Amino acid sequence: MERTVDPAEVGFDPARLTRIDQHFARYVDEGLLAGWQIVVTRRGQVAHASTYGNRDREAGLPVEADTLWRIYSMTKPITSVAAMMLWEEGAFELTDEVSRWIPAFADVRVYDKGSAQRPFTVPTTEPIRIWHLLTHTAGLTYGFMYTHVADALYRAAGYEWSTPPGVDLAQACERWASLPLLFQPGSRWGYSVATDVLGRLVEVVSGQSLDEFVADRILSPLKMSDTRWWVDAADADRLAALYLPDPATGRAVREDRLSAGARRRPTIFSGGGGLISTAADYHRFTQMLLRGGELDGARVLGSRTVRLMTANHLPGGLDLGQLSTGGFAESTFDGVGFGLGFGIVLDPVPGRTHASRGEYFWGGAASTAFWVDPEEELTAMLFTQLLPSSTHPIRPQLRQLVYSALVD
After folding, report:
1. Cβ–Cβ under 8 Å, residues 143 and 154
2. Which CATH architecture has domain 7-81+210-404?
3. How confident is the model over 268-310, as pLDDT tens digits?
4. Cα(385)–Cα(368) distance, rounded to whole angstroms?
5. Coiled-coil segments, which residues (predicted)?
6. Which residues pair with 49 in a beta bridge?
């Protein structure tokens, strides 16, 4: 991507914007990141676009405008949009029970006490509903959390960072439904496989596989031609390598075991974390949201639906600091609510952040991130490939640098 406007014309101090590149270059120069790509827009124009370092450090391949990035949980907003497109067509109500389409969820139970070897469970007092999936209030979890007995049960079943070999989305949902919930549906917030279950709901309701629905109804209309579920041989050298921090030095060390899955067709299309994309493609997705569901004549959602999705849906209007079960998440908690697929800034003061009220955002496990600020008509995206995303405070630092450069 390239800059399309003089930053000063859209309220940025150009000299202050250069701080972004200077700051993040140090992460690469010190070996903490292999490389990165950053894009900042205002009023639909690209005010800042930069790359630094390598997409594949070992091969000496630089980050380029068309580098392919594993966006992991930045897939979640796309899957949430897919579900809400079906909701707009009257296919279901947000209060409908999930078991109407995925019967295995009719008999879920909730962890009460005991160990992973001998857990005791109780019946649900409230069925899992579709809005619970969209808001991560269903009581499901992730195996990689390492904070609760329920997480250990997911790992024991083969669900940590991936799924057992040969398991498809329908089979995974059957298995998750058989495992204890972390809490009663609708009572807490816990980051989870809920968006993967939502992807299965899209399949059942639409009659299409998730990859087909997303391609036909979102990627194609928005001209997101580089977004896909795996990378074939023709584009393999565009894919950024994946890295982990060395426990002793903190330096980024190449990780090939987890990254290999991106080079072959998956058996499960993960609505919660399966997509690979480019900065240019995800920019089009964020611009569609900023414009109220439409981009270049292609309307994906109604403007009121986007407004509904980007409002806080947590019970009682509370924030994540009050309702979260803790553990890994792509968000800070204080002053942040959750909508239908996005974190929502309710009040920037408790989180000590520059963010505007109503800003919505999310990120991916390999340290990618984006946000959309309707008040300032601003979007920002960060792409790199370091697992886990909590390794360095690069997301809040990007926010500090972007908003500090806004001077109108």
Report:
1. yes
2. 3-Layer(aba) Sandwich (3.40)
3. 999 999 999 999 999 999 999 999 999 999 999 999 999 999 9
4. 7
5. none
6. 39
Secondary structure (3-state) at 37 = strand
- CATH architecture, domain 94-206: Up-down Bundle (1.20)
**What is the tens place of the pLDDT at every residue in 63-95?**
999 999 999 999 999 999 999 999 999 999 999
Taking the CB of residue 204, how many other CB atoms lie within 10 A of it? 13
| Domain spans in the chain, listed from the N-terminal domain onward | 7-81+210-404, 94-206
Q: How far is CA 170 from CA 348, 378, 393, in A?
A: 39, 38, 36
Q: Is 91 exposed, middle or buried (0-12, 13-18, 19+ CB in 10 A)?
A: middle
User: Is 340 a residue whose pLDDT tops 70?
Assistant: yes
Cα distances (angstroms) measured from residue 225 to each of 98, 148, 219, 285, 377: 32, 40, 7, 12, 25
Phi-psi region of 164 (alpha: psi -120 to 50; beta: other; left: phi over 0): beta
